[in-house]
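Collaboration report, partner site 2.

Our partner group contributed sequences for two proteins of shared interest, and the home lab folded both. The records are reproduced in the order in which they were received, starting with the first partner submission.
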Amino acid sequence: MKETEEKLTNMHVGRLIHMMSHQMKRDSNSVASAIENDELTIMQKHVLKFVLLESLHRDLYQKDIEEEFQIRKSTVTGILKLMEKHGYIYRESVKKDARLKRIVPTAKAEEMRPKILEHIQKTEARLIEGIAPEDVLICKKALGQMLCNLSEMNKEENQKDE
């Protein structure tokens, strides 16, 4: 335990986050494999997972996917076209602005939601296993602040490039 603590003390925060991210991506690929079909690529499965989860709370648009995955509009358009072709989503016009298309999961996609939610709950439980709830909250606050710090740094750097 003392050796692990010493190792963590000397490790850069960025490296630890990178290692966590790598593990989460490995786990995320098992979620993608939980979407049992060969019609969709891994990326399309990740987008479908995002659509299924986020559409529970809000309306989703192409821009949301572009921002979440940090990918270009043309790439998202291609992904959504194929997902629509395979019957996982449909796009419907918004009354207030016909140019906007809301992304809606189909019944075929909805069938996958329980399995995905179950996987997320298991992963979350495993992540926080043995950690006091107040420590989990401190960790979330610290990670949230780090995310804001990086976002600000990126904004500043982008302004310099302009």
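Second partner submission, folded after the first:
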Amino acid sequence: MNTNFKAKVNGNRAYDISVDQLDDFDVIPTGAGTYHLIDQAKSYAIAVEKADFDNKTYTLVINNRKYEVSLKDDLDRLIKEMGFSLGAGKQVNSIKAPMPGLILDINVSVGQEVKTDDVLLVLEAMKMENMISSPRDGIIKSIEVAQGDAIEKGALLIEFE
């Protein structure tokens, strides 16, 4: 399978880019998420403002102009042609205790909207505080434990809507 990319810029302009073309660019990192590019004797200052690696979408600021860019490679296109989608795995709808312990703190309430990696609760196990984080964006459907509860491994802690 060739390594070619289809880049879509601002949702309407499409470009085909090969790995060989990428190798021809003169790119120098200038800081965290910033680059200097020279292509065909033209200079470009590039900053990566936002990167969504799962969906392969990026917000780039190039010479003070903002661009929304999506990249798809040959594998992405093949998966789409076959009718599958990336990341179409099982949705996590509940969180269970990874180990026995004591619930020290609950940082959410029923009906609250949470984002991926928000700390939901703190579980003390073996004299260590373990932050239990949200595996996905969602809304809290139920909280099955209370602060101070001693729980066993595998006990249901939180359910999502």
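Feedback sent to the partner group on the second submission included the following. The first helix runs from residue 19 to 24. The two ends are 41 Å apart (CA to CA).
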